[in-house]
Design brief:
single chain, about 170 residues, 4 helices, Alpha-Beta Plaits, globular, alpha+beta, 10 strands
Length: about 170
């Protein structure tokens, strides 16, 4: 679980935006992730454009994923993600799956499996979302998502769904 504060734990973050220059929000968020204390970004996926999940009357999303090593606990790490979202004008209210300036999802945190009032890890929708799996597959195809299997096998399954997604910029590293 990587609970010892002296250990580095791998974490994977999904990044998305579809409001107010979404590509700029995603790129700025990646820079902000790089400045988190006791954390190191080890990889960033390509950027993808995908159809919105939820109401269809919203703009497409720009998505990416980041691989990070951190000494923070899962809850402290998630709190830092929420702070970054808030700095981009994100409000956690209103329509579920509606438009947003920035969405940072903690996808996987080591081998942790958590489900409490604040945080669920692995992210509950990870196996059903092409805009999560394709970027994550670039970074960690052999990663085992606790309870679901490898990212590569989940990606193979989701690619057969035919949902629209397109790579718009190669890996940012």
């Amino acid at each position: 679980m990587c609970s010892d504060a002296t250990r580095w734990c791998p974490a994977y973050v999904g990044i998305g935006s579809n409001l107010d220059s979404p590509q700029d929000h995603v790129l700025t968020a990646i820079d902000e992730l790089k400045s988190l204390s006791v954390s190191v970004v080890t990889g960033v996926s390509s950027l993808y454009r995908s159809a919105p999940m939820g109401p269809a009357d919203q703009d497409d999303y720009i998505n990416a994923a980041a691989a990070i090593l951190t000494q923070l606990s899962p809850h402290d790490f998630f709190s830092r993600l929420c702070t970054i979202e808030f700095s981009h004008g994100r409000k956690r209210e209103g329509e579920r799956w509606g438009p947003r300036t920035l969405d940072l999802d903690l996808l996987v945190f080591g081998a942790s499996q958590l489900d409490d009032d604040v945080l669920t890890v692995p992210h509950p929708g990870i196996g059903d979302r092409n805009f999560v799996l394709l970027p994550l597959n670039e970074l960690a195809p052999h990663l085992i998502v606790p309870g679901l299997g490898s990212v590569a096998s989940l990606t193979d399954t989701i690619l057969r769904s035919g949902k629209r997604i397109e790579k718009i910029q190669d890996e940012l590293t």
